[in-house]
Every structure is written in C-alpha cells, then in structure tokens.
Amino acid sequence: MEPTEARNVVLPVVEDSAVAHLYEEVDSVCRLGGIDAARLVVDKDILKKHLGLSDRDCQLLRQGARILAERRSQRGGGHRRVA
Predict the structure, then answer these.
(1) Cα 44 to Cα 25: distance, rounded to the nearest angstrom
(2) Residue 60 per-residue DSSP state
(3) Which of 40, 62, 78, 82, CA to CA, is 20 to 30 A from 1?
(4) pLDDT, tens digit, for every residue of 28-54?
(5) CA–CA distance from 39 to each of 6, 7, 43, 49, 83 (Å)?
(6) How many CA atoms within 13 Å lie on the side-chain side of 4?
(7) Are 29 and 41 contacting, i.e. CB atoms less than 8 angstroms apart?
(8) How far apart (Å, rounded) are the C-alpha atoms in residues 81 and 78?
(9) What is the dihedral sign for C-alpha 4, 9, 81, 31?
(10) 61-68: long-range contacts (C-beta < 8 A, 24 or more apart)?
C-alpha cells in the first residue's frame, strides 16, 4: 500500500478490554497451528463478534491482504506471507 493510499484507510477502534482475553489463545494457536489458524481466531472474535463483519467481509479482507502482500513481494518490499 502506498502512503497516499494508507491515508484513506479508516480503522475501527476496539477497546482493549474487549479483546484482552485473546492474547493467550492467539499466542497458543499461532505456536501450534500457525499464523493462518491464529488469524481465523482473531477474525471470528474481533471482526465478526465485535465489528459485525460477515464471513464474506472477512474473506474479502483476507483476499485484499494477499493482493497487497503480492504487490510488496513483486517490488521486493516485503517477505511476510499473508493468507
């Protein structure tokens, strides 16, 4: 994402207390099942439960993240894998 594009991104605010319980679960899931499994836990709790996004919304966000990661990779700007 270019800096000019990033300026237009609106981020929701989720209270720390609403998601504090996720830390240990996500850490454990990430260590045992990998980043993709941990991402599903976060999607279910934060994106769906707290922000009211649908399964389709979450799928579109993951797809967008993959596209951005591929763009960075093609330009040599990043090595992180996004699923």
Answers:
(1) 13
(2) H
(3) 40
(4) 999 998 988 999 999 999 999 989 999
(5) 22, 24, 6, 14, 9
(6) 0
(7) yes
(8) 9
(9) positive
(10) 68/1
Share of the chain above pLDDT 90, in %: 37
Residue with tokens 């207390």: 17
Q: How far apart are CA 80 and CA 12, in angstroms?
A: 24
Annotate 8-57 with DSSP letters as a single string: T-------HHHHTTHHHHHHHHHHHH-HHHHHHHHIIIIIIIIT---HHH
The predicted model scores a pTM of 0.65
Instruction: Point out the least confidently predicted range of 7-16, 25-34, 65-74.
Output: 7-16
DSSP character at residue 7: T
